[in-house]
From TrEMBL:
Pathway: Protein modification; protein ubiquitination. Residues 45-176 form the RWD domain. GO terms for molecular function: transferase activity; zinc ion binding. This is RBR-type E3 ubiquitin transferase. The lineage of its organism: Eukaryota, Sar, Alveolata, Dinophyceae, Suessiales. It comes from Effrenium voratum.
Length: 523
């Protein structure tokens, strides 16, 4: 770095760039402020050229007519690809993240009165580079303003070449290097947010193309137009289905965060307040050690008091003091098994036979239990009661979002469970309901379609073991569990899986019931 005469000798690595610049400018001012007309005109022309080239990146620091002329210029740092940030510690280098954009370097320049003519002092140059810290002083010794400020800037850009791995050391910064890394990560996020706000985005719901600033970016990074996301948030919050407030991109499905919901529902709206209440309720419902006091909500008025149960399923309500079993909701019974549903119904029937308020409450609870026993099953994970109205036997719990088989209660993922077990994907009642709506599909055709659908989920080796060749049309027919009575979905022929005999319609049972004939069920 070129020093002007009279400037103090400062340790460049120990003194902030702004302070070093101020000291060196004071040295220039001690030389006087009288400038030759030719030098003054040259400085004016160069400053005007720089303003046209760099526009808002250039900032004049000194008042008009004052000498020396002071200005600062933001020089962008070019990044070709991701730059990995590493922090040097006593145990080695620790990854701190990666960025695609770095803060610009700040070049401060002070032009002496005689510039661009020869004179007693060279211009003052001080460079501040956020990702280099004190190490930026090494760049100053390589810079020269002899060819003009524009060439100086181009030279600085070359010196600012960034490697693919940037190591942040303690001696580079006056603070913890982690704080410097956080600032770099924050700047990178800010740049990317500004860039995507100006880019054209596509809403995954309505597929409209619009500028990013006209929509909403979710925490996962995906975009949606404001109207679609607002309708989505309003609908699911109104219907108390807060778990459905997820990113509409099928492969993502990340939950909406509170910042997005404030934008969509309004920070002071009743819907946002309702969402917070529903979200808290859902959070409590998913906790396996939280149960609700049955005595506080005896009347069914919605006064649900959450209680914590211990390993022995004992819970004590802090409101009414009732100690109860978290599994059966009865009074706590240490050492004794919980009463079964049948025993509970018998007790309720006895209480319901009486008169008065207690008997009426027992009758109401009895009707509820009978309805639940008939129409609902408990989720195998969170034990939440699930009611299935129609559809196949693959059921999704609305509370914890797992899938399970409605017939056996086993937790499942895809449809392979129905292809490799005796559980039906559609039960007979569902087929009858479907037949009433369609009027053209009988039970046999529905079963054939079910078999074709499930065949794609069977492992090829296992399918070969389960499949039998139709004796009439040679089509492959998959056995339903261990049942040897098969129906070809191609030609509708009934045949035996053991001996491949074609069975007459309506008389298939005679083949399996005859003494010494094939069993209807076998491995």
């Amino acid at each position: 770095m070129a020093h002007s005469e009279g400037s103090p000798e400062l340790g460049s690595a120990d003194v902030p760039a702004a302070l070093r610049f101020a000291h060196q400018v004071a040295g220039l001012r001690s030389l006087g402020s009288t400038a030759e007309t030719e030098a003054e005109e040259g400085q004016k022309q160069e400053i005007e050229s720089l303003e046209l080239i760099f526009e808002e990146s250039l900032q004049i620091l000194s008042p008009e007519g004052e000498r020396p002329v002071l200005f600062q210029l933001q020089v962008p740092v070019a990044v070709d690809d991701w730059v990995e940030l590493l922090i040097e510690t006593g145990d080695g280098q620790v990854p701190a993240g990666a960025v695609q954009a770095l803060p610009p370097a700040l070049l401060r320049v002070a032009l002496p009165p005689h510039y661009p003519l020869e004179g007693p002092s060279a211009p003052v140059l001080v460079v501040e580079v956020p990702h280099l810290g004190a190490a930026a002083t090494e760049l100053e010794s390589h810079l020269s303003v002899e060819s003009g400020v524009f060439d100086l800037v181009e030279q600085l850009k070359e010196e600012l070449a960034v490697p693919s791995r940037l190591v942040l050391r303690q001696e580079m910064f006056s603070e913890d290097p982690m704080q410097a890394a956080l600032r770099l990560l924050s700047h990178d996020q800010h740049v990317r947010n500004e860039r995507r706000q100006q880019e054209t985005q596509v809403c995954p719901v309505c597929f409209d193309e619009l500028q990013g600033s006209r929509g909403v970016f979710l925490s996962c990074g995906h975009f949606g137009c404001r109207d679609c996301l607002q309708q989505m948030a309003t609908l699911h919050t109104s219907e108390a289905d807060v778990t459905a407030l997820r990113c509409p991109v099928p492969d993502c499905r990340e939950c909406f965060d509170m910042g997005v919901l404030r934008q969509l529902l309004g920070s002071d709206s009743e819907l946002l307040q309702k969402y917070e209440e529903l979200s808290l309720k859902h959070c409590i419902d998913t906790m396996e050690d939280v149960v609700y006091c049955p005595r506080c909500d005896l009347e069914g008025g919605g006064n649900r008091v959450p209680c914590i149960q211990d390993e022995d399923h004992m819970a004590c309500c802090e409101v009414c003091g009732f100690a109860f079993c978290g599994k059966c909701r009865s009074a706590y019974h240490p050492g004794a098994t919980c009463t079964s549903a049948d025993d509970r119904m018998e007790a309720l029937e006895a209480r319901a036979a009486g008169k008065g308020r207690e008997a009426a409450a027992a009758r109401s609870e009895l009707l509820t239990l009978r309805h639940l026993a008939k129409t609902t099953k408990n989720c195998p994970k969170c034990n939440m009661g699930i009611e299935k109205t129609d559809g196949c036997s693959k059921v999704c719990c609305t509370n914890c979002k797992i899938y399970f088989c409605w017939r056996c209660g086993k937790t499942i993922t895809g449809y392979d469970h129905f292809a490799t077990s005796e559980c039906r994907l559609f039960d007979d009642e569902e087929i009858r309901r479907w037949n009433q709506q369609v009027h053209h599909i009988d039970k046999a055709q529905a079963r054939a379609q079910e078999a074709r659908f499930l065949a794609q989920f069977i492992d090829p080796a296992q399918m070969w073991q389960q499949a039998r060749e139709c004796p009439r049309c040679r089509a492959a027919v998959v056995r339903d569990g261990k049942n040897n009575h098969l129906r070809c979905y191609a030609c509708m022929t009934q045949f035996c899986a053991k001996c491949f005999q074609i069975l007459q319609k309506g008389k298939a049972g005679e083949h399996f019931n005859k003494l010494g004939s094939c069993p209807q069920h076998s491995d």
